Amino acid sequence: MSIPIDPVAAGGVTPLSPLSFEQTAAAPAAAGTSGGQSFAGSLAAAVENLQQLQATSNGLAVQAVTGDLDDIHKATLASTRAGVTLDLMVAVRDRGVAAFNDVMRMQA
Fold it and tell me: How many CB atoms lie within 10 A of CB 96?
């Protein structure tokens, strides 16, 4: 007989906000645009989101180094979030290049 484990309530933890391309993906589909335009828009929004995350991370890192930041966790989370997003963008780029190379090999 097992006793169910109650979930631990995390105090002060806010849920992650949805990524920018998740918010904009529904709008172009409703407007009747083609798939290529919505993908390009999603990709551009993801790059803008990455730039914003990196700028936030850099600003918090400067504040942490100068001693102006009270909570070092904010800088650590921002840095990790920017790093994971950059890794995702690199993986998407690598997949796109691999797909392009596969198409070019099929034509030869």
Answer: 11
Distance CA 73, CA 49 (A): 21
- pTM for this one? 0.60
d(CA 35, CA 88): 21
Range 34-42, long-range pairs (CB < 8 A, 24+ positions): none
The residue whose two tokens read 């998407």 is 92
> What dihedral angle (degrees, nearest 10) is formed by the CA atoms of 77, 83, 88, 90?
170
Q: How far apart are CA 17 and CA 57, in angstroms?
A: 16
**pLDDT one-digit tens code per residue, 28-84:** 444 445 555 688 888 888 999 999 999 999 999 999 999 998 889 999 999 999 999
